[in-house]
């Protein structure tokens, strides 16, 4: 529209229209309506409207073209404008930011000054009349289900007539549609029938009708946790399409995007406060269950007993499952991770724990090849630590495997992939293949402490046990017997301190065991940032079984930690002056930390089967007070 001979121009906007000019790339933009401008083809005119139009074409920009030879304009041009405001909004979780109005919804940023929308995997079962998890179909079964979803709002402001020949399309990628679902609130929000499934699985786009005028509400749920090949990030877009020309296909005008991160599954260390204790009742463990119940009452915990009809004499509830949680700014709920071991307890997590606000997740190898290392006694997590200058405010997952480069047992790949993909508790792999069962809880545990890092790590120590026994022999107690008072169907032979200290095979094997534990000790010190002052050596001996190690007497570190109350396997150690010297030693190490030691007889129902108190119990704990999105992985 520029006439020949143009040397200068003026530009003006109608009320509500701000016009700026950027004469060239070197100069910043200036208000355009202050003077005439030299005409240059590289000049850019920038038009800004700060509020939506009331009617079509109700605003305009007018340009006058001038020549030095003419007093009147050579010509003028008018650009008619309609302003619409279109935004796809959600909770961007900006509470730590001062400039929350200037965040990029297309990005997801970790850390205390970060931002980004968060999505929960809707893996609980709010509708008890249903057999499946909430996200297993394309329906909202009950209104409580919506509380587990994240709200996404499409806001549109502008003339109603504008939308007669323009469309709004909500869309996502086919990749993201396999991992999320979106429901549109199409009517009164107090009815389940209101919520139409519009994205997810095979649906990747949805033309949005304007049921509610300026605002349409959507509810988004996650279908998949982060895993191998899925970072946890998903994107949704709304695109404005021009549909005014019947001779051409629709043309895109504008797209707005929001990015969600699927919340990770988070483990809880034994130092967090306990809420609920689980134990199985089997044929021969009535006294054990009673002792666990007594400890739970002391700690103020709920107790859940899995009856024999459901556990079918499978007592290893620690091995069957790990209790963690998921969290978003609007909702937190526990999630049970069901192990692939699939013993007689395999139905318990899904049938008895999955329920309202209690989610479920599992990982099974396709070939179903699992080893003893895939039981979740081999899955623990440390308290919060700082190592090598890096903060781990949610601790680090500890799993057992073999030595680097060896061909021994490892946790199945699908479980390792899942744990690594959660990002917030980076796993450390320890050496457990020297153990017959092969679980990290056979040689380590964590207890709360009032000082330093807020905890101590307990390590089983043959060296500490031999030292203790040598001291007792020196003081004339070499004939004191282990295993006195063991009650059970099988006769257990007693053995004296003198016999233990003269058994060359036992001494030699425990030197090997100590070397394996020492190897793990150095890994743990390095990866968790620990010093020897953070570690307590708990006296423990092991014996060989098929060239692997099992506990010689009940494994003292395999304990139940309920706040300051500890349920420790009763070791049946040498009785000196009427007291078990192993119990006395453990008390002397732990009670100065304000801990209360209760020794539970698990000898016949658990120890004889290569397990202990920790193996036979499980605990749901309070979530971390620290919010996972405030960390930097």
UniProtKB/TrEMBL annotation:
Q: Which Gene3D superfamilies match?
A: L-arginine/glycine Amidinotransferase, Chain A, Protein-arginine deiminase, central domain, Protein-arginine deiminase, N-terminal domain
Which segments cross the bilayer? none
Pfam families in UniProt: PAD, PAD_M, PAD_N
The protein's superkingdom reads Eukaryota
- Report domain Protein-arginine deiminase (PAD) central positions: 84-242
- Ranges for the Protein-arginine deiminase (PAD) N-terminal domain? 1-82
Identify the InterPro entries for this entry. Cupredoxin, PAD, PAD_C, PAD_central_sf, PAD_N, PAD_N_sf, Prot_Arg_deaminase_cen_dom
Q: Does the keyword Cytoplasm apply?
A: yes
Task: Show where the Protein-arginine deiminase C-terminal domain sits.
Answer: 253-630
Chief location of this protein within or outside the cell: cytoplasm
Coiled-coil segments on the chain, per record: none
List keywords of the entry alphabetically: Cytoplasm
**Places the protein is found:** Cytoplasm
Q: Does the keyword Transport apply?
A: no
**According to its UniProt record, which protein family does this protein belong to?**
Belongs to the protein arginine deiminase family.
- PANTHER family given for it? PEPTIDYLARGININE DEIMINASE (PTHR10837), PROTEIN-ARGININE DEIMINASE TYPE-3 (PTHR10837:SF21)
Protein name per the record: Protein-arginine deiminase type-3
Q: Which organism is it from?
A: Galeopterus variegatus
What phylogenetic lineage does the species belong to?
A: Eukaryota, Metazoa, Chordata, Craniata, Vertebrata
- Encoding gene (name): PADI3
């Amino acid at each position: 529209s520029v006439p020949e001979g143009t040397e200068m121009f003026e530009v003006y906007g109608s009320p509500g229209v701000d016009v700026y000019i950027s004469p060239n790339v070197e100069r910043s933009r200036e208000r355009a309506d202050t003077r005439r401008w030299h005409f240059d083809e590289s000049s850019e005119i920038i038009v800004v409207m700060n509020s939506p139009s009331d009617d079509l074409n109700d605003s305009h920009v007018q340009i006058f073209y001038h020549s030095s030879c003419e007093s009147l304009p050579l010509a003028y041009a008018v650009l008619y404008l309609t302003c619409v405001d279109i935004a796809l909004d959600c909770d961007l979780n900006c509470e730590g930011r001062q400039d929350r109005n200037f965040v990029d919804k297309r990005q997801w940023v970790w850390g205390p000054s970060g931002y980004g929308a968060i999505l929960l995997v809707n893996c609980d079962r709010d509708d008890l009349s249903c057999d499946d998890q909430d996200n297993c179909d394309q329906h909202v079964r009950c209104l409580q289900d919506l509380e587990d979803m994240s709200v996404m709002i499409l806001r549109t402001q502008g003339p109603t007539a504008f939308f007669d020949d323009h469309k709004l399309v909500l869309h996502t990628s086919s990749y993201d549609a396999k991992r999320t679902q979106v429901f549109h609130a199409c009517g009164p929000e107090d009815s389940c029938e209101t919520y139409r499934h519009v994205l997810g699985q095979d649906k990747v786009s949805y033309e949005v009708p304007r049921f509610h005028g300026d605002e349409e509400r959507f509810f988004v749920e996650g279908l998949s946790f982060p895993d191998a090949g899925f970072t946890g990030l998903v994107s949704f877009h709304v695109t404005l399409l021009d549909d005014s020309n019947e001779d051409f296909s629709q043309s895109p005008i504008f797209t707005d995007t929001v990015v969600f991160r699927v919340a990770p599954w988070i483990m809880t260390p034994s130092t967090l406060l306990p809420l609920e204790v689980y134990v199985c009742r089997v044929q021969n463990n009535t006294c054990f269950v009673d002792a666990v119940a007594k400890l739970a009452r002391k700690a103020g915990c709920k107790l859940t007993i899995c009856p024999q009809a459901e556990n079918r004499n499978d007592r290893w509830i620690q091995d069957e499952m790990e209790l963690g949680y998921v969290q978003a700014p609007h909702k937190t709920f526990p999630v049970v991770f069901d192990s692939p071991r699939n013993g007689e307890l395999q139905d318990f997590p899904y049938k008895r724990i999955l329920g309202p606000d209690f989610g479920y997740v599992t990982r099974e190898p396709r070939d179903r090849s699992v080893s003893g290392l895939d039981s979740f006694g081999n899955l623990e997590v440390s308290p919060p630590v700082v190592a090598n200058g890096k903060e781990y405010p949610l601790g680090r997952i500890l799993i057992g495997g073999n030595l680097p480069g060896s061909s021994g047992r490892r946790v199945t790949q699908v479980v390792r992939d899942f744990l690594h993909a959660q990002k917030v508790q980076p796993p450390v792999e320890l050496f457990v293949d020297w153990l017959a069962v092969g679980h990290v809880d056979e040689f380590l545990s964590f207890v709360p402490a009032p000082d330093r890092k807020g905890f101590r790590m307990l390590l089983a120590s043959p060296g500490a046990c031999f030292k203790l026994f040598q001291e007792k022999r020196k003081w004339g107690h070499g004939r004191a017997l282990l295993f006195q008072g063991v009650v059970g169907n099988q006769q257990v032979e007693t053995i004296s301190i003198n016999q233990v200290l003269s058994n060359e095979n036992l001494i030699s094997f425990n030197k090997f065991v100590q070397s394996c534990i020492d190897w793990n000790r150095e890994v743990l010190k390095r990866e968790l940032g620990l010093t020897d002052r953070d570690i307590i050596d708990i006296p423990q001996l092991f014996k060989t079984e098929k060239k692997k190690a099992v506990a010689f007497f009940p494994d003292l570190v395999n304990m139940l930690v309920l706040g300051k109350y500890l349920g420790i396997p009763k070791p049946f150690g040498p009785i000196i002056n009427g007291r078990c010297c192993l119990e006395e030693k453990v008390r002397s190490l732990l009670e100065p930390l304000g801990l209360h030691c209760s020794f539970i007889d698990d000898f016949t129902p658990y120890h004889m089967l290569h397990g202990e108190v920790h193996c036979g119990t499980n605990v749901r704990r309070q979530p971390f007070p620290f919010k996972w999105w405030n960390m930097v992985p």
